[in-house]
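Give me C-alpha cells for this 93-residue protein.
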Amino acid sequence: MKLLNAERALSKELIRIKSEEAQARAEINAAVLQAAIDGLGVLAEIAGRETALGKALFLEQQAAAKIHCRKGFQRNATGGGGYPLSARCGRLR
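Here you go.
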C-alpha cells in the first residue's frame, strides 16, 4: 500500500512538473512571438521614415538641379574648367 501511494504521489508530482513546463514554454513562445512582431513594427516604421526622407531628398536634389541648370554652366570647386549642362539638364527643363 505504501508503494502504491508513493507511486501515485510521484505520478501527481510528475504531472504538475510537466504542466508547469508546458506553461513556461507557452509563455516563452508568446514572448518570442511578441518580440518578433515588435521588431517587424520597428522595421516597418524605419522603412517608412527612410522612404519619406529619401523622397524628400530626391525632390530637393531635383529642385537644386533645376535651379543649377537654369544657369547653364557649372565650374568645379577649384575654379577649373566648366562644362555645359545642356546634355544633363535637357530632361529637367
